[in-house]
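note to self: dont lose this again. the chain is below, predicted strucutre after it. 364 aa total, dont forget to put it in the shared folder this time
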Amino acid sequence: MRGAGAGDQWPDCHYPKTSGHVRGIIDGMDRPHRVAVLAFDGVVALDLGIPTQVFNSATDPDGNRLYEVRVCTPGAAPVHSSGGYDIVPKHGLELLDWADTVILPGLFREHVRLDPDHPALAAVRRVAGRARIMSICTGAFALAAAGLLDGRPAATHWAYADLFRAMFPQVQLDADVLFIDDGDILTSAGVAAGLDLCLHVVRRDHGTEVANRAARRSVVAPWRDGGQSQFIERPLPEAGDASTASTRAWALQRLGESLDLPQLARHARMSVRTFTRRFREETGLSPGRWLTGQRVEHARHLLESTDLTVDQVAERAGFGTAVSMRQHLRASIGTAPLAYRRTFRPTTSPSPDPTPTPTPTLAP
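---
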């Protein structure tokens, strides 16, 4: 489906909030964006390493790093990690005053109950509103204890959802999504969802080209929708069972065409009902939401890398009209097509009309 009527065919496309405040942190910056990772005792080892890996992989076309990542702990003291080893940092809580973004990685279950008067939480509260605040996995428990999630939507690892709701009923927990971008505060589900959140932030700060380079360097999928379910019931089809993967690949090569649900189901040789069910089981998304997300990503790529007009980009991406594309871009990333192009267009002249091959995103 494409054009102005796309919302009628695909009614369940929702987008994260964006923050002009954070956008202003990036604009005009003549130094790398500063990221402080705050580790508590019991820090989840994988979560601690994710920001360094992703943000250090984000570079400009000349290979210059766009972020500077440092790790700190309360009092610069060693903390024990879930991996069985200690983290010995170089920095204490003073690092938060240096940072443009503060990230709280996850905590092991016996460490998630934090005193709201903990000096580290007081330090996070102090910089909130100036710095962007993020959590990975059960790091949301620390943000909630600090009072920063009161009345706001948040994500955490699904296995900790019941405990989180019992401890913080004032938080609007959504345990079924990969991450939530609520503007100046962002939270993710567990483990690999931290990668998705960090790549989302790179994409929000610097565009799809930079984020895709960082994803390639980290050897991970370049994009997964934040609203995708944490539960993928059938990530791999059973032997001899039908899958929607070939239809997704087929659709990616035809984003500029008019595609509707019956057409996708016919290609998969399934009924609409069966196709929709299996699509959700394999991707965690409805067909409509997945297709709209792919079109938004392709439009962003074309705006960054070509001289095509807005009308031409809308046609190539499958939105049909510039009005429809403008609505989807504004809902997704909070900006209009031309404003996006001015922000993320490379300094070198892009190709006038590259082969419109979108980056495949066949599976979560």
